[in-house]
Write a structure and sequence with these properties.
By secondary structure, this protein is an alpha+beta fold. 62% of the residues lie in helices and 24% in strands. The chain contains two helices and two strands; from the N terminus they run αββα.
Amino acid sequence: MEMKLEKEKNRKAGKLVIEGNAFYELDTECMEKKKKHQMVQEQKKRRQRS
């Protein structure tokens, strides 16, 4: 029982996308980090232009 709970804690939340006969599992945590990183980079570029 404890082993099952431990696996669930380690499992990342994902989103399943089905496209035709193919399916993909997206790592939503990774996507959020990527969006935040892009926002920071855009802010740096704006500061440099000013």
